[in-house]
Structures are given as structure tokens and as C-alpha cells.
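User: C-alpha cells for this complex, please. No commentary.
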Amino acid sequence: MSVFPTATDHPAARALAGRHRLRLWEPLPWLLALAFYVAFPTYLGFGTDLLVTILFAISLDLVLGYAGIVTLGHAAFFGAGAYTVGMLAFHGIWAEPITSLIAAAAVAALVGLLSGLVLLRTTGLTLLMLTLCTMALLEEAANLAHDWTGGFDGLPSIAIPPLFGLFEFNPLYPNTQYLYALGVLFICFVFVRVLVYSPFGQSLTGIRENTLRMHAVGAPVRMRLIVCYTISAAIAGIAGGLWAQANAYVNLSTLGLDRAATVLIILVLGGYGRLYGAFVGAVAYMVLSHLLAKIYPTAWQLGLGLLLVIIALFARGGILGVGETLLRWFGRRRPSP
Amino acid sequence: MVKRILAISTAFVLSTCLAQAQEVKVGIVLPYTGIGAEFGQQVDRGMETYLKLNADKVKPYKITLVKRDAKNPGGADAKIATQELLTQDKVDVLGGWVYSPNAIASAPIVAAGKKLAVIMNAGTAHITKMAPNFVRTSFSMWHAAFALGEASAKQLNAKTAAVGYTDFPPGKDSLNAFKRGFEAHGGKVIDEIPMGGAAAVPDMTPFFQRVKDKKPDVLFVFVPAGDHAVAVVRTYAALGMRQAGIKLIGPGDITQDIKLQSMGDAAVGLITMHHYNADLENAENKRFVGAWKTAYGPDTTPDFTAVGGYDGMAAIVHAAHATKGTMDPDKALASLLGWKFNSPRGPISIDPETRDIVMNEYLVEVVKGKDGRLHQKLLGKIDAVKDACKALKVGPCA
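Assistant:
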């Protein structure tokens, strides 16, 4: 102990410095995902879709939750990735799964960079509308380029060669697809986790909280936002590419407002800017809608709608926000040592 | 005592085996929610009406429907539903599919699952080629439009035609089919006008004015049923095109029975070609429409999507009888090749080569009845129409 108390001794400072450390419960989602694989072998098609949605929601969390970029057009990058994988495979150019995903990430990143250079000059409602427009333009372009994209009917029955030349993508029993998606999700998640706790990630949070002050301290705000937007686009592109490979199929729905809005709802439901909100939100939203739709094929949206209304009214921070409030509440009640 | 217990248990085991053999599980994938819910409901009611009306013919088999929501035209949800029906519910046969993209996305799973799969609506022509166990009891976009091309030249004595279509796959399919049918019988298409997308109703005036200036004998229009079709007939009337001698024609999608009354008097005189309308005069259809109105209310009506579900269920029941309830995939499929059925839309059969439907096409005109409602009056019919896209080997149908 030095004579002069340093800033790192303060409990708040220690908490800040230790934020990035691995918590005890953090392996839990991955263990659950593996348990799901063993316990529900007939639900793996749904499980794969769930993993892809989680990845897509994580990419949105990066821009929305961390950098505070409000977007309604994130499906543009999902679709760019999906169509990259789909068109490369369908036209017999390149189909190897992992390198195709890298191509998907590259194309989506390029779309993100080019659109970001223009769009990120604006904020708020203008930005929201412009992201929506970008997505609508891409969707219409995919509709018009019928010879390349298959138009409204999409590209059917894309042949994906076995993973590492060993593991077949069986359409009826998608075991390979599930584990493959889980692996890709894990790698992308580790990357995003490192990123948000890095100085770069901290500066994004700073921009979200107070843009003016970040300008004042000399941070290159616009550049940071563009880089973040591009990285997020690349991850969304990977999610789209995974979707195309798992479904062996691409169509206009990958670029639709439906997908962009759903992922936004999922993230808000789980709690944005929390890294794990994407997991909680996607699981809650998709498991509920899947099971309800199975039991009540005509009225399942009622149950889902009620949940969303309750979350919007009483839990602004999403499901994780409720959890945090409860933890704090119990923490206060606990007698201090 | 032991003997008796044995006998009882044997009888019990036998009876449960028999009971199992008699149940046929049918997995249904339809959009029960979202923008396609109206179609989903029509197909669903069509299936239920068949089972109710023909309870005697279904016996001794018990048809259990396992219904799943296809949710949207995105493909992924329908695909997951199809996969789970096959692997979790272990259904004997699949049916449904309203949106073509959903049937296209599900095709690899249908093929891998090997079970008989009956398409009850999806109309993109080449879908039946995507899995060897697909059978279609609905229609292909080519059925009506190609037949109307032929009828325009022969029965309406048209020499020239203009085509206005909504710019999405069914619209383009209809354009190509009409053009092939019309030009093969001596007509000439002098103008092709894309009229916006399916999502929003455009102002039809500039398109129709362009047609009016070119003075074709007929104007062939393909637009989605509902608001698009209403805009078409209103603009047609407002520009005085009937007085200018231009007949408005189209496939029956634009006079879908459930939308017809809301189109109003402007629709009177509209000439369409289709395989079904609720006014068709035959005993089967009277029975079908009667049962429908009893079950779902006097103001409701079945339309061409409902009859796809009705006939699809008839096909499944036929396959159940032919396989003695086992629904062995190969035998069930074989039993439907060349299958003939007396449907509310008239006699139909399944083409053994393409597994697609063969049916009559009816040329009808919208008239105002004495009851003040709009009806469809029969002008003529073409018997046993096959899917021309596959007959002519056009594009992916080849």
C-alpha cells in the first residue's frame, strides 16, 4: 500500500478496471447451447435459426447499444451477406462454407462502409429513415436483378459442400448446421466482447453518452462511428451468410423490414448495450413465438404482443434490465458485512 | 385364467395396432397469421369442408391434421415447420403452402423426408419439379393466362392486345403465359406495361391512358386481388375504355370471390379466365358452397384457394385408401399419378408426368344479378388444361 491513495484503489475504479474480466456465469450460455443440442435433437432447425438471430442481434447491439447509432435498416447487411453466399454458390463460383462466410463479411462490410460514409453524417430520425431507405433500395435491386438473385422467388436449393470436407449439411437433421452456427457465433462473440471492452469500445460508449464532450476531448467521432458501423455490418453479413448456408436458400426476406424490425425488438426485449441482451432477447422472443405458434397457429401473436407491451410499459431496460434492478434490490437488502 | 389374460392382451395389442394403422397424420403448413392469413383460412376451411362433407368416404381412416403456421413468405419459418412436422410429429403426409417462396424453401426437406407432399396453393409453375414427391392440386400461373391467350384470339376475336402487370413473379409469369397463348393463335401483344410492385397500389391512369392511345382489342391485366383490382376496374371505367372498344380481361385472381362484391358495379363486364368461381353450375360445387355457407356464415364464400385445399384433402384421402392407411411414400405417390376426381371446379386429374393438376378453365364475365350482387356468368370453357409452362418447356419448367 502506497502512502498516497491512487485512483485504482477506489471501489468504483476497481469495478471499472475489472469490467472486462470473465465472470463465473459466462460459460453458461454456451453450455446451455450444447445441452440443447443433446436434449432436443429434433429442434435443431429452430435452434440454428435462433443462433443466427443471436449473432445478428449482437451485430445490432454493437451499433445501437454501444455506439448509439439508431438504425432500422440493419437487414441490409444481413441480406448482403446472405446473397453473397447464395449467389456465389448458386452460380457455381464458390461454395466452401467458411471462406464463403469471409466473402459475405467482406461484401457486407463494404456496403456498411460506403453507406456509413454518407449516412453517419446524420443523426436521429433522419438517420433512421436513411438506413431504412438503404435497405429498401437493396431489396428492390435484388428484386430487379432477377437473373442473378432469383427475384421474389429467391435462389433455391443451394448446394453447400461438406464442412471441412467431412460434415454434410443434412436438410432434415441439421446437426452440422447447428454446431457450425454455434462455432461461428462463439468466435464472433469473443471478438465483439474484446472489442467493446477495448479503448475503442469505451470511446463508442463515450460517443453514445455525450458526443459533444467526445469531440471536445479530441476523439475522431465520425471515424469511430464509421469503423464501428463497418464492423457491425461485417458481423451481420456473417449472420446472413450463415442463414443462407443453414437454409440452403436465399430470398428477399433477408433484406426485408420484417427482419430488421424483429431484430430490433429482440434486442430491446433482451436489453441493449449489455452484450448478453441479444442472447436473452432472442431466446425469449423466438422460443415463445415458436412454441406459441405450434400450440395456437392462428392466435400466437397475441401472447407475444402482450409480452412486448409489458416490457415496453414496465421494463425499459429489457429482460436483463429487470434482472439488474432485482439484483440491486436484493443487494441493498443484504446486511452489509 | 392365464389363457384369458393372454387373449385379452393379444386383442388389446391388435386393436391398438389397427387403430394406429387407421390414423393418417397430415402435416399442414399454411400462413395462419400475417398478410397471407386470409388465404390460409380459405385453404384450411377447404380442407375441413372436405372432411366434413365426405366423412363416409374418409372411413375407416382417421385423418388427423397437425397445423403449423408458415407465418410469412420468408421461407425459413415454413421450412422449420416442415422439418419439425417430419421429425417431431412424424406425419405421414404433408400439405399446404400458400406462398411460392415457402414451397421453394421447403423443397429440399420435402425431398429428403420422402413423404407425399400436396401443394394446395403455391402457383409458381416449376415448383413441382423441385422435389419428386410434390403433387399439386391448386394451379400453375400458366393455367389461366395461357388459356386466356388462346381464348382471346379464338373466342373474343382479338387481333391485338396490351398487357399491364404488377411487377412480381406471378405478374411476369402471367405476362409470358398470356403472350405465348395469344401469339400462338395469331394475336399480337403490342404493349407490355409493368404497373408497380405488389406492396402498394399505383395510380393506374397513366398506364391505361397509354393503352387507350394504342387502341388494342383487349387489355390483359394481372394484379393482386383486392385493392389493385378495384383500382384497375375503376380506372378502366373512368377513362371510358369500354366505349373505346377495348375489352378488359385477366386471370380469375382479379375477380377472387371473396373480393368481388367490394369491387362494385365498375367490375361489371370484366372478362376473366380461371379454374374456379363460387358461381360454377355443377352438383359438387352446389354441395361445397352450401356446406361452406352453413358452416362459416351466409356472407362468406369459398374461392379458388379454398378449392385447392378441398381437392388436396381429397387427394390425401384417396392415397390413404390406396395404401390401406400406411401412406407408404412410393405407393401413395403412385396412387395419385393419373388420379381422377370430381371436384367443385369440375373434373380434375393429376398429370402422371408432371404431378401437376389437369383441369377445366372457364371463361366468365362479371354480371350484376337480380339479388343486387355481382356474379360470374359462364361464357365458355376449355377442357382438361395442362400446365403449359411444362408442356412448352419454358425456362426453369424445362
